[in-house]
Amino acid sequence: MLKRFFDIAAATLGLVLLMPLLLGIAVWIKLDSRGPVFFRQVRVGQHGKPFRIIKFRTMRTDSEAAGKLTLAEDSRITRSGRFLRHYKLDELPQLMDVLRGTMSLVGPRPEVPEYVAHYPADVREKVLSLRPGLTDYAALEMLDESRLLAQYEDPHRAYLDVVLPRKLAQYQQYADKQSFGEDTRIILRTILCLARRRTDHESP
User: Fold this and answer.
1) How many domains does the chain have?
2) Which pLDDT belongs to residue 134?
3) CA-to-CA distance for 15 and 195, rounded, in angstroms?
4) How confident is the model at residue 157 (pLDDT cuts 50, 70, 90)?
5) CB 57 within 8 A of CB 81
6) pLDDT attached to residue 204
7) Angstrom distance (rounded) from CA 201 to CA 146
8) Alpha carbon of residue 95 to chain centroid
9) From CA 146, how far away is CA 82, in angstroms rounded?
10) For residue 92, what pLDDT band results from cuts at 50, 70 and 90?
11) Per-residue pLDDT for 135 more than 80?
12) How far apart are alpha carbons 17 and 92 in whole angstroms?
């Protein structure tokens, strides 16, 4: 109950405070490339229930036909999209998913059905018992996931064999340790990590 109350309060406050930024990003996306401002995609939510996640569009409108994985320097990414993805600003519209109750501020990142099908049965039950979130341990560890996958000849295989097992281990760790205090620590760590990316990007 406390977690849900905090989600609603924080998501509402975040949307209100960030509204000028959100509107500015929306205008930038429209001016930068043809297509809608938002990108919607089916993800697997709590208890295996599918929902349509919302993000700012960072790729060309025909991009998903080329595959669901996005690699570093992917030619499908727009100019505005490269900036938004680097600072994770494309994820901000998911605050609306938090208000709707399909997501939480903290929890395992929601995966597409294709990859959820590869979860071991016992792990699947444990991970999907949680409401998916905007950030968690795995999201922090995999901030540069697209760059990591770009190093492999077969990124899809690498995701299944290397990245996904690491994510699932982190998801299970969160499931075992979840608490309001733990959520607060993860949110603060996320803010610090993103601020550090900005500092590193601006350093000569």
Assistant:
1) 1
2) 97
3) 19
4) very high
5) yes
6) 40
7) 17
8) 11
9) 12
10) very high
11) yes
12) 12
Judged on CB neighbours under 10 Å (0-12, 13-18, 19+), 47 is exposed
Other CB atoms within 10 A of residue 85 CB: 21
Task: Name 39's bridge partners.
Answer: 55
Q: Where are the alpha helices (DSSP H) in the chain?
A: 2-32, 79-86, 94-100, 113-116, 121-127, 137-141, 145-149, 155-158, 164-177, 180-202
Which pLDDT value is given to residue 200?
Answer: 54
Alpha helices in 56-160 (DSSP H): 79-86, 94-100, 113-116, 121-127, 137-141, 145-149, 155-158
What would the two tokens of residue 19 be? 């509204």
Span 69-90, average pLDDT: 87
Residues in the chain, how many?
Answer: 204
Gap between the Cα atoms of 2 and 170, Å rounded: 23
Phi, psi of 44 (to 5 degrees): -95, 120
Residue for token pair 């494309």: 90
Q: What residues contact residue 12 under an 8 Å CB cut-off, 6+ apart? A: 99
| pTM reported for the whole predicted model | 0.88
Q: How confident is the model at residue 203 (pLDDT cuts 50, 70, 90)?
A: very low
Q: Specify whether the backbone of 48 is left (phi greater than 0), alpha (psi in -120 to 50) or beta.
A: left
Give me the domain span that covers residue 175. 2-202
